[in-house]
Design goal:
22 strands; 428 residues; five-stranded parallel beta sheet; binds flavin-adenine dinucleotide; single chain; FAD/NAD(P)-binding domain; 9 helices; alpha/beta
Protein backbone atom coordinates (compact mmCIF):
# COMPACT_ATOMS: atom_id res chain seq x y z
CA UNK A 1 0.00 0.00 0.00
CA UNK A 2 1.13 3.55 -0.76
CA UNK A 3 -0.78 4.94 2.23
CA UNK A 4 -1.45 3.67 5.75
CA UNK A 5 -4.88 2.06 6.27
CA UNK A 6 -7.52 4.43 7.61
CA UNK A 7 -10.22 3.30 10.03
CA UNK A 8 -13.38 5.36 10.46
CA UNK A 9 -14.75 5.02 13.98
CA UNK A 10 -13.26 3.90 17.27
CA UNK A 11 -16.00 1.59 18.52
CA UNK A 12 -15.22 -2.09 19.14
CA UNK A 13 -14.96 -2.80 15.38
CA UNK A 14 -12.61 0.15 14.75
CA UNK A 15 -10.46 -0.41 17.83
CA UNK A 16 -9.99 -4.12 17.18
CA UNK A 17 -9.23 -3.53 13.48
CA UNK A 18 -6.65 -0.96 14.56
CA UNK A 19 -5.20 -3.30 17.16
CA UNK A 20 -4.67 -6.13 14.66
CA UNK A 21 -3.35 -3.87 11.89
CA UNK A 22 -0.97 -2.12 14.29
CA UNK A 23 0.22 -5.47 15.63
CA UNK A 24 1.19 -6.54 12.12
CA UNK A 25 3.03 -3.31 11.39
CA UNK A 26 0.51 -1.36 9.27
CA UNK A 27 0.50 1.82 11.41
CA UNK A 28 -3.27 2.45 11.02
CA UNK A 29 -4.87 5.87 11.39
CA UNK A 30 -8.22 5.99 13.25
CA UNK A 31 -10.55 8.91 12.62
CA UNK A 32 -13.19 9.38 15.31
CA UNK A 33 -15.89 12.07 15.11
CA UNK A 34 -16.39 12.22 18.89
CA UNK A 35 -14.14 13.05 21.82
CA UNK A 36 -11.50 10.93 23.51
CA UNK A 37 -13.01 8.88 26.29
CA UNK A 38 -11.84 11.07 29.20
CA UNK A 39 -13.68 14.11 27.74
CA UNK A 40 -16.58 12.10 26.37
CA UNK A 41 -17.47 10.80 29.84
CA UNK A 42 -17.71 14.39 31.12
CA UNK A 43 -19.84 15.45 28.13
CA UNK A 44 -22.25 12.52 28.61
CA UNK A 45 -22.55 13.05 32.36
CA UNK A 46 -23.33 16.74 31.75
CA UNK A 47 -25.99 15.69 29.23
CA UNK A 48 -27.62 13.36 31.76
CA UNK A 49 -27.60 16.11 34.39
CA UNK A 50 -28.49 19.19 32.36
CA UNK A 51 -29.90 17.86 29.09
CA UNK A 52 -27.37 19.64 26.81
CA UNK A 53 -26.64 17.25 23.95
CA UNK A 54 -23.44 17.30 21.91
CA UNK A 55 -24.51 15.65 18.61
CA UNK A 56 -20.89 14.70 17.84
CA UNK A 57 -19.97 13.22 21.24
CA UNK A 58 -22.60 11.35 23.24
CA UNK A 59 -23.69 7.83 24.26
CA UNK A 60 -23.49 6.67 20.62
CA UNK A 61 -20.49 8.68 19.35
CA UNK A 62 -16.97 9.07 20.68
CA UNK A 63 -13.99 6.93 21.61
CA UNK A 64 -15.09 3.42 22.58
CA UNK A 65 -18.22 3.59 20.43
CA UNK A 66 -21.83 2.90 21.28
CA UNK A 67 -21.24 0.31 24.00
CA UNK A 68 -18.96 2.45 26.16
CA UNK A 69 -21.85 3.25 28.47
CA UNK A 70 -23.20 -0.28 28.58
CA UNK A 71 -23.39 -3.47 30.53
CA UNK A 72 -20.37 -4.58 28.53
CA UNK A 73 -21.90 -7.96 27.83
CA UNK A 74 -19.50 -9.99 25.74
CA UNK A 75 -21.48 -13.15 25.09
CA UNK A 76 -22.43 -13.99 21.53
CA UNK A 77 -24.23 -16.81 19.79
CA UNK A 78 -21.68 -16.83 16.97
CA UNK A 79 -19.77 -20.12 17.02
CA UNK A 80 -16.11 -19.59 17.78
CA UNK A 81 -14.60 -22.01 15.24
CA UNK A 82 -11.54 -19.86 14.57
CA UNK A 83 -11.06 -18.76 18.20
CA UNK A 84 -11.68 -15.13 17.27
CA UNK A 85 -14.01 -14.53 20.21
CA UNK A 86 -11.39 -15.99 22.51
CA UNK A 87 -8.80 -13.67 21.00
CA UNK A 88 -11.07 -10.66 21.61
CA UNK A 89 -11.48 -11.64 25.26
CA UNK A 90 -7.71 -12.12 25.64
CA UNK A 91 -7.03 -8.66 24.21
CA UNK A 92 -9.58 -7.20 26.65
CA UNK A 93 -7.83 -8.92 29.57
CA UNK A 94 -4.45 -7.69 28.35
CA UNK A 95 -6.02 -4.18 28.41
CA UNK A 96 -7.13 -4.57 32.02
CA UNK A 97 -10.51 -6.36 31.92
CA UNK A 98 -11.15 -8.87 34.73
CA UNK A 99 -9.64 -12.32 34.01
CA UNK A 100 -12.95 -14.05 34.74
CA UNK A 101 -14.25 -13.02 31.29
CA UNK A 102 -12.01 -15.78 29.86
CA UNK A 103 -14.03 -18.56 31.46
CA UNK A 104 -17.48 -17.23 32.41
CA UNK A 105 -20.35 -18.35 30.19
CA UNK A 106 -21.80 -14.84 30.07
CA UNK A 107 -18.84 -12.50 30.52
CA UNK A 108 -19.36 -8.79 31.10
CA UNK A 109 -17.08 -5.83 31.87
CA UNK A 110 -19.38 -2.99 33.02
CA UNK A 111 -19.33 0.73 32.22
CA UNK A 112 -17.00 1.65 35.10
CA UNK A 113 -14.20 -0.76 34.11
CA UNK A 114 -14.69 -0.41 30.36
CA UNK A 115 -13.36 3.15 30.39
CA UNK A 116 -9.91 2.16 31.58
CA UNK A 117 -9.89 -0.85 29.25
CA UNK A 118 -10.51 1.46 26.28
CA UNK A 119 -7.77 3.88 27.34
CA UNK A 120 -5.33 0.96 27.65
CA UNK A 121 -6.37 -0.44 24.28
CA UNK A 122 -5.82 2.98 22.69
CA UNK A 123 -2.38 3.33 24.31
CA UNK A 124 -1.41 -0.15 23.09
CA UNK A 125 -2.46 0.75 19.51
CA UNK A 126 -0.39 3.95 19.66
CA UNK A 127 2.60 2.06 21.14
CA UNK A 128 2.43 -0.36 18.20
CA UNK A 129 2.55 2.50 15.66
CA UNK A 130 -1.13 3.45 15.25
CA UNK A 131 -2.58 6.96 15.53
CA UNK A 132 -5.99 8.27 16.63
CA UNK A 133 -7.49 11.62 15.70
CA UNK A 134 -10.57 12.85 17.57
CA UNK A 135 -13.26 15.26 16.39
CA UNK A 136 -12.33 14.04 12.91
CA UNK A 137 -15.51 13.19 11.02
CA UNK A 138 -15.51 11.48 7.62
CA UNK A 139 -17.65 13.78 5.49
CA UNK A 140 -16.89 12.72 1.91
CA UNK A 141 -15.23 10.07 -0.19
CA UNK A 142 -13.94 10.11 -3.74
CA UNK A 143 -14.29 7.07 -5.99
CA UNK A 144 -12.80 6.47 -9.44
CA UNK A 145 -13.11 3.26 -11.49
CA UNK A 146 -14.93 1.59 -8.59
CA UNK A 147 -11.90 2.19 -6.35
CA UNK A 148 -11.65 4.51 -3.36
CA UNK A 149 -9.22 7.37 -4.01
CA UNK A 150 -9.51 9.82 -1.15
CA UNK A 151 -11.54 10.85 1.89
CA UNK A 152 -12.44 14.25 3.31
CA UNK A 153 -12.36 15.01 7.04
CA UNK A 154 -14.63 17.66 8.60
CA UNK A 155 -15.55 18.96 5.15
CA UNK A 156 -12.11 20.46 4.48
CA UNK A 157 -9.14 18.13 4.80
CA UNK A 158 -8.61 15.75 1.86
CA UNK A 159 -6.48 12.63 2.30
CA UNK A 160 -5.44 10.07 -0.32
CA UNK A 161 -6.13 6.47 0.70
CA UNK A 162 -5.73 2.86 -0.44
CA UNK A 163 -7.73 1.09 2.25
CA UNK A 164 -10.56 2.41 4.41
CA UNK A 165 -12.30 0.36 7.10
CA UNK A 166 -15.76 1.82 7.67
CA UNK A 167 -16.57 1.04 11.29
CA UNK A 168 -19.17 3.78 11.78
CA UNK A 169 -21.80 1.93 13.90
CA UNK A 170 -25.58 2.13 13.46
CA UNK A 171 -26.17 5.76 14.39
CA UNK A 172 -24.14 7.71 11.81
CA UNK A 173 -27.17 8.65 9.77
CA UNK A 174 -25.45 11.56 8.01
CA UNK A 175 -22.61 9.25 6.94
CA UNK A 176 -25.09 6.67 5.58
CA UNK A 177 -26.65 9.47 3.48
CA UNK A 178 -23.25 10.54 2.18
CA UNK A 179 -22.36 6.94 1.24
CA UNK A 180 -25.69 6.58 -0.56
CA UNK A 181 -24.98 9.70 -2.61
CA UNK A 182 -21.64 8.15 -3.59
CA UNK A 183 -23.52 5.03 -4.77
CA UNK A 184 -21.92 2.66 -2.28
CA UNK A 185 -23.98 -0.57 -2.48
CA UNK A 186 -26.41 -0.66 0.47
CA UNK A 187 -29.69 -2.43 1.27
CA UNK A 188 -32.41 -2.20 3.96
CA UNK A 189 -32.45 -4.84 6.70
CA UNK A 190 -34.69 -5.86 9.62
CA UNK A 191 -34.23 -4.32 13.05
CA UNK A 192 -36.45 -3.97 16.12
CA UNK A 193 -38.08 -1.24 18.20
CA UNK A 194 -39.92 -1.14 21.52
CA UNK A 195 -39.55 -0.15 25.15
CA UNK A 196 -37.24 -0.89 28.08
CA UNK A 197 -38.71 -2.50 31.18
CA UNK A 198 -37.47 -2.23 34.79
CA UNK A 199 -38.23 -4.72 37.58
CA UNK A 200 -36.63 -5.16 40.96
CA UNK A 201 -33.52 -7.33 40.63
CA UNK A 202 -34.73 -9.22 43.69
CA UNK A 203 -37.85 -10.37 41.84
CA UNK A 204 -35.82 -11.51 38.83
CA UNK A 205 -33.35 -13.33 41.10
CA UNK A 206 -36.18 -15.15 42.84
CA UNK A 207 -37.87 -16.10 39.55
CA UNK A 208 -34.60 -17.45 38.16
CA UNK A 209 -32.89 -18.92 41.22
CA UNK A 210 -35.67 -19.57 43.76
CA UNK A 211 -34.28 -20.19 47.24
CA UNK A 212 -30.68 -19.85 46.02
CA UNK A 213 -31.22 -16.19 45.15
CA UNK A 214 -29.02 -14.88 47.98
CA UNK A 215 -26.05 -17.03 46.98
CA UNK A 216 -25.81 -16.33 43.26
CA UNK A 217 -24.85 -13.24 41.20
CA UNK A 218 -27.62 -10.93 39.84
CA UNK A 219 -29.70 -13.03 37.44
CA UNK A 220 -30.35 -12.32 33.78
CA UNK A 221 -32.95 -13.66 31.35
CA UNK A 222 -33.67 -14.00 27.65
CA UNK A 223 -37.26 -14.11 26.39
CA UNK A 224 -38.87 -14.60 23.00
CA UNK A 225 -42.46 -14.65 21.77
CA UNK A 226 -44.28 -14.86 18.45
CA UNK A 227 -47.21 -12.45 18.36
CA UNK A 228 -50.24 -12.88 16.10
CA UNK A 229 -49.35 -12.12 12.50
CA UNK A 230 -45.90 -13.57 13.03
CA UNK A 231 -44.21 -10.55 14.63
CA UNK A 232 -41.24 -11.64 16.72
CA UNK A 233 -40.92 -10.03 20.16
CA UNK A 234 -37.82 -10.55 22.26
CA UNK A 235 -35.83 -9.24 25.19
CA UNK A 236 -32.60 -7.55 24.24
CA UNK A 237 -29.55 -6.17 26.05
CA UNK A 238 -30.66 -7.29 29.52
CA UNK A 239 -28.80 -5.36 32.21
CA UNK A 240 -28.90 -6.94 35.69
CA UNK A 241 -28.50 -4.37 38.49
CA UNK A 242 -28.42 -1.60 35.91
CA UNK A 243 -29.57 1.83 34.77
CA UNK A 244 -31.82 2.91 31.91
CA UNK A 245 -29.91 5.63 30.07
CA UNK A 246 -30.79 8.47 27.75
CA UNK A 247 -28.72 7.51 24.66
CA UNK A 248 -29.78 10.26 22.26
CA UNK A 249 -27.43 11.41 19.53
CA UNK A 250 -29.56 13.90 17.58
CA UNK A 251 -31.11 17.17 18.78
CA UNK A 252 -34.82 16.88 19.63
CA UNK A 253 -34.76 13.10 19.27
CA UNK A 254 -34.88 10.73 22.23
CA UNK A 255 -33.62 7.16 22.40
CA UNK A 256 -32.82 4.94 25.38
CA UNK A 257 -30.69 1.91 26.19
CA UNK A 258 -29.34 0.12 29.28
CA UNK A 259 -26.06 -0.05 31.18
CA UNK A 260 -24.59 -1.58 34.35
CA UNK A 261 -21.40 -1.24 36.32
CA UNK A 262 -19.16 -4.26 36.84
CA UNK A 263 -20.84 -5.13 40.16
CA UNK A 264 -24.35 -4.85 38.70
CA UNK A 265 -25.43 -3.52 42.04
CA UNK A 266 -28.45 -1.24 41.57
CA UNK A 267 -31.90 -2.34 42.80
CA UNK A 268 -33.31 -2.84 39.30
CA UNK A 269 -32.95 -5.23 36.38
CA UNK A 270 -33.77 -3.77 32.96
CA UNK A 271 -34.02 -5.02 29.41
CA UNK A 272 -35.41 -3.85 26.10
CA UNK A 273 -38.55 -5.62 24.92
CA UNK A 274 -38.61 -5.11 21.19
CA UNK A 275 -40.68 -6.03 18.15
CA UNK A 276 -39.20 -6.94 14.77
CA UNK A 277 -39.57 -4.39 11.98
CA UNK A 278 -39.01 -5.63 8.44
CA UNK A 279 -37.98 -3.82 5.24
CA UNK A 280 -41.38 -4.86 3.76
CA UNK A 281 -42.96 -2.50 6.34
CA UNK A 282 -41.45 0.35 4.28
CA UNK A 283 -41.85 -1.12 0.78
CA UNK A 284 -38.16 -2.07 0.97
CA UNK A 285 -37.12 1.59 0.73
CA UNK A 286 -33.43 1.94 1.67
CA UNK A 287 -33.98 4.75 4.18
CA UNK A 288 -37.49 3.60 5.21
CA UNK A 289 -36.27 2.00 8.44
CA UNK A 290 -34.04 4.90 9.35
CA UNK A 291 -36.88 7.40 8.84
CA UNK A 292 -39.15 5.20 10.96
CA UNK A 293 -36.58 5.23 13.80
CA UNK A 294 -36.21 9.01 13.54
CA UNK A 295 -39.96 9.55 13.59
CA UNK A 296 -40.32 7.49 16.77
CA UNK A 297 -37.40 9.24 18.45
CA UNK A 298 -38.89 12.67 17.63
CA UNK A 299 -42.24 11.62 19.08
CA UNK A 300 -40.55 10.29 22.24
CA UNK A 301 -38.77 13.63 22.69
CA UNK A 302 -42.02 15.55 22.30
CA UNK A 303 -44.02 13.22 24.57
CA UNK A 304 -41.57 13.54 27.47
CA UNK A 305 -40.84 17.25 26.81
CA UNK A 306 -37.21 16.34 26.23
CA UNK A 307 -37.13 13.90 29.16
CA UNK A 308 -37.35 10.09 28.96
CA UNK A 309 -41.06 9.20 28.61
CA UNK A 310 -42.04 6.62 31.23
CA UNK A 311 -45.18 4.58 32.05
CA UNK A 312 -46.12 1.77 34.40
CA UNK A 313 -46.74 -1.56 32.66
CA UNK A 314 -50.27 -1.82 34.12
CA UNK A 315 -51.17 1.58 32.64
CA UNK A 316 -49.61 0.63 29.30
CA UNK A 317 -51.91 -2.40 29.14
CA UNK A 318 -54.89 -0.10 29.93
CA UNK A 319 -53.78 2.69 27.56
CA UNK A 320 -53.72 5.34 30.30
CA UNK A 321 -51.17 7.88 31.48
CA UNK A 322 -49.30 6.96 34.67
CA UNK A 323 -49.43 9.29 37.65
CA UNK A 324 -47.12 7.69 40.25
CA UNK A 325 -44.61 4.90 40.76
CA UNK A 326 -45.32 1.76 42.78
CA UNK A 327 -42.94 -0.65 44.49
CA UNK A 328 -40.42 -0.55 41.62
CA UNK A 329 -38.49 2.69 41.97
CA UNK A 330 -37.12 4.30 38.76
CA UNK A 331 -33.38 4.09 38.05
CA UNK A 332 -32.40 6.32 35.14
CA UNK A 333 -29.42 8.25 33.84
CA UNK A 334 -31.16 11.36 32.51
CA UNK A 335 -34.38 13.05 33.54
CA UNK A 336 -37.76 11.31 32.99
CA UNK A 337 -41.48 12.11 32.88
CA UNK A 338 -44.62 9.98 33.43
CA UNK A 339 -46.62 9.67 30.19
CA UNK A 340 -48.68 7.29 28.05
CA UNK A 341 -46.25 5.49 25.71
CA UNK A 342 -49.08 4.19 23.55
CA UNK A 343 -49.37 7.73 22.17
CA UNK A 344 -46.11 7.35 20.27
CA UNK A 345 -45.75 3.65 19.44
CA UNK A 346 -47.21 2.25 16.19
CA UNK A 347 -50.23 -0.05 16.65
CA UNK A 348 -48.42 -3.20 15.61
CA UNK A 349 -45.76 -2.58 18.27
CA UNK A 350 -48.35 -1.88 21.00
CA UNK A 351 -50.35 -5.00 20.11
CA UNK A 352 -47.31 -7.28 19.96
CA UNK A 353 -46.06 -5.96 23.34
CA UNK A 354 -49.50 -6.35 24.93
CA UNK A 355 -49.52 -10.00 23.81
CA UNK A 356 -45.94 -10.64 24.85
CA UNK A 357 -46.01 -9.31 28.46
CA UNK A 358 -48.54 -11.89 29.79
CA UNK A 359 -46.58 -14.64 28.02
CA UNK A 360 -43.31 -13.48 29.58
CA UNK A 361 -45.06 -13.42 32.96
CA UNK A 362 -45.59 -17.18 32.64
CA UNK A 363 -41.84 -17.64 32.14
CA UNK A 364 -40.68 -15.13 34.77
CA UNK A 365 -43.18 -14.76 37.56
CA UNK A 366 -43.97 -11.09 38.14
CA UNK A 367 -42.69 -9.91 34.75
CA UNK A 368 -46.04 -8.28 33.90
CA UNK A 369 -46.54 -6.78 37.39
CA UNK A 370 -48.49 -3.55 37.10
CA UNK A 371 -45.83 -1.39 38.70
CA UNK A 372 -43.01 -2.54 36.40
CA UNK A 373 -41.62 0.58 34.72
CA UNK A 374 -41.56 1.00 30.94
CA UNK A 375 -39.55 3.68 29.16
CA UNK A 376 -39.31 4.66 25.52
CA UNK A 377 -38.10 4.51 23.01
CA UNK A 378 -35.74 1.67 22.04
CA UNK A 379 -34.87 2.11 18.37
CA UNK A 380 -31.12 1.49 18.05
CA UNK A 381 -31.10 -2.26 18.54
CA UNK A 382 -29.20 -2.64 15.29
CA UNK A 383 -28.67 -0.86 12.00
CA UNK A 384 -31.67 -0.55 9.64
CA UNK A 385 -29.22 -0.49 6.71
CA UNK A 386 -26.58 -2.91 5.48
CA UNK A 387 -23.48 -1.70 3.59
CA UNK A 388 -23.12 -4.66 1.28
CA UNK A 389 -19.79 -6.45 1.27
CA UNK A 390 -18.43 -9.42 -0.64
CA UNK A 391 -17.09 -12.72 0.69
CA UNK A 392 -13.68 -11.15 1.38
CA UNK A 393 -15.23 -8.39 3.48
CA UNK A 394 -14.69 -5.69 0.84
CA UNK A 395 -17.45 -3.56 -0.68
CA UNK A 396 -17.82 -3.66 -4.49
CA UNK A 397 -15.89 -0.41 -4.22
CA UNK A 398 -12.26 -1.53 -4.03
CA UNK A 399 -10.39 -0.57 -0.89
CA UNK A 400 -13.57 0.01 1.16
CA UNK A 401 -14.22 -2.47 4.01
CA UNK A 402 -17.54 -2.04 5.91
CA UNK A 403 -17.15 -3.53 9.41
CA UNK A 404 -19.01 -3.93 12.70
CA UNK A 405 -22.57 -2.98 13.53
CA UNK A 406 -22.85 -0.29 10.83
CA UNK A 407 -22.06 -2.79 8.10
CA UNK A 408 -25.29 -4.51 9.07
CA UNK A 409 -24.01 -8.07 9.31
CA UNK A 410 -23.93 -8.34 13.10
CA UNK A 411 -26.74 -10.73 13.94
CA UNK A 412 -26.77 -11.39 17.65
CA UNK A 413 -30.23 -9.83 18.10
CA UNK A 414 -32.12 -11.91 15.57
CA UNK A 415 -31.10 -15.43 16.40
CA UNK A 416 -34.38 -16.43 17.97
CA UNK A 417 -36.75 -14.78 15.53
CA UNK A 418 -34.94 -14.80 12.22
CA UNK A 419 -32.77 -17.33 10.45
CA UNK A 420 -29.54 -16.40 8.72
CA UNK A 421 -29.14 -18.12 5.39
CA UNK A 422 -25.43 -18.63 4.84
CA UNK A 423 -25.76 -19.18 1.09
CA UNK A 424 -27.91 -16.18 0.22
CA UNK A 425 -26.35 -14.15 3.09
CA UNK A 426 -29.86 -12.92 3.91
CA UNK A 427 -32.29 -13.17 6.83
CA UNK A 428 -35.32 -15.31 6.10
C1 LIG B 1 -26.13 2.10 25.94
C2 LIG B 1 -25.72 0.89 25.09
C3 LIG B 1 -25.51 -0.33 25.72
C4 LIG B 1 -25.08 -1.45 24.99
N1 LIG B 1 -24.80 -2.60 25.64
C5 LIG B 1 -24.23 -3.63 24.99
C6 LIG B 1 -23.76 -4.78 25.67
O1 LIG B 1 -23.84 -4.88 26.88
N2 LIG B 1 -23.20 -5.78 24.93
C7 LIG B 1 -23.07 -5.69 23.56
O2 LIG B 1 -22.56 -6.62 22.93
N3 LIG B 1 -23.53 -4.60 22.90
C8 LIG B 1 -24.08 -3.59 23.58
N4 LIG B 1 -24.50 -2.47 22.89
C9 LIG B 1 -24.36 -2.48 21.42
C10 LIG B 1 -22.89 -2.23 21.04
O3 LIG B 1 -22.48 -1.06 21.65
C11 LIG B 1 -22.71 -2.13 19.55
O4 LIG B 1 -23.14 -3.32 18.96
C12 LIG B 1 -21.24 -1.88 19.23
O5 LIG B 1 -20.80 -0.70 19.85
C13 LIG B 1 -21.01 -1.79 17.74
O6 LIG B 1 -19.65 -1.56 17.51
P1 LIG B 1 -19.11 -0.82 16.23
O7 LIG B 1 -17.66 -0.62 16.44
O8 LIG B 1 -19.56 -1.53 15.03
O9 LIG B 1 -19.86 0.59 16.20
P2 LIG B 1 -19.96 1.76 17.32
O10 LIG B 1 -19.61 1.24 18.65
O11 LIG B 1 -21.27 2.41 17.13
O12 LIG B 1 -18.79 2.74 16.88
C14 LIG B 1 -18.86 3.55 15.76
C15 LIG B 1 -17.93 4.72 15.97
O13 LIG B 1 -17.79 5.41 14.75
C16 LIG B 1 -17.80 6.79 15.00
N5 LIG B 1 -18.27 7.44 13.75
C17 LIG B 1 -19.49 7.34 13.18
N6 LIG B 1 -19.52 8.02 12.03
C18 LIG B 1 -18.30 8.55 11.86
C19 LIG B 1 -17.73 9.39 10.86
N7 LIG B 1 -18.43 9.79 9.80
N8 LIG B 1 -16.43 9.79 11.01
C20 LIG B 1 -15.70 9.40 12.10
N9 LIG B 1 -16.22 8.61 13.08
C21 LIG B 1 -17.49 8.20 12.95
C22 LIG B 1 -18.74 6.98 16.17
O14 LIG B 1 -18.47 8.17 16.88
C23 LIG B 1 -18.45 5.73 17.00
O15 LIG B 1 -17.47 5.95 17.98
C24 LIG B 1 -24.93 -1.35 23.58
C25 LIG B 1 -25.18 -0.12 22.94
C26 LIG B 1 -25.57 0.99 23.67
C27 LIG B 1 -25.82 2.31 22.96
Amino acid sequence: MKHRPVIIGSGPAGLFSAYMLAKYGYKPLILERGEKIENRVKTVEKFWKEGTLNPESNVQFGEGGAGTFSDGKLNTSVKDKEFRNKKVLEIFVEAGAPKEILYLNKPHIGTDLLRTVIQNLRNKIIEMGGEIRYQACLTDIEIKNSTIQSITINGKEKMEVDVVILAIGHSARDTFQMLYKKQIPMEPKPFAVGVRVQHTQEMINFAQYGIFKEKLPPASYKLTFHAKGGRGVYSFCMCPGGYVVNSSSEKEHLVINGMSNFKRDTQNANSAIVVIVKPEDFQNRLFGGLEFQQELEKKAYALGHGKIPVQLLGDFMQNQKSSEFGEVQPIFKGDYELTNLQEILPNFVVQALQEAFPNFDKKIKGFAKKDSILAGVETRTSSPIRIVRQENGESKIKGLYPAGEGAGYARRHYVCCYGWNKNSRKYC
